[in-house]
Amino acid sequence: VRLVESGGGMVQPGGSLRLSCATSGFIFSNYDMIWGRQAPGKDPEWVSGIYNNGARTYYTDSVKGRFTMSRDNAKNTLYLEMNSLKPEDTALYFCKARPVRNGLEYWGQGTQVTVSS
Q1: With contact defined as beta carbons under 8 Å apart, do 93 and 67 qualify?
Q2: Which among 52, 31, 53 has a CA at the least distance from the CA of 98?
Q3: Is the pLDDT of residue 25 over 90?
Q4: What does the alpha-carbon distance between residue 49 and residue 55 come to, in Å, rounded to a whole number?
Q5: What was the pLDDT predicted at 60?
Q6: Mean pLDDT, residues 95-115
Q7: Residues near 115 by Cβ (< 8 Å), separated by ≥ 6?
Q8: What are the pLDDT digits (tens) for 44-82?
Q9: 3-state DSSP of 8-51
Q10: DSSP 8-state code for residue 73
């Protein structure tokens, strides 16, 4: 099982980034997916989630209207489009796979996002 995040980097406030999470080794369409993040010195927090079939997405209040989560089940890949980035969005962003039915959860290693002028 592999979950590999990419697309992070350093961007100025107001900028944009698109994160990807490429997965393999499990049936992607059988898993709800979550983006989480962990800022230095803080606990991890969930950012957004999407149903296994893409029918619904949900976001934490601090990113609503700025972040858009999507998935391509044909490519086994998850995305997070991040716009109007703020310094407080600085964190290690990771993806998580949660089975629709009982089973193991899987995590990626994360990609660093730094928002700074």
Answers
A1: no
A2: 31
A3: yes
A4: 11
A5: 98
A6: 96
A7: 10, 11, 12, 13, 15, 85, 86, 87, 88, 89, 90
A8: 999 999 999 999 999 999 999 999 999 999 999 999 999
A9: CEEECCCCCEEEEEEEECCCHHHEEEEEEEECCCCCCEEEEEEC
A10: T
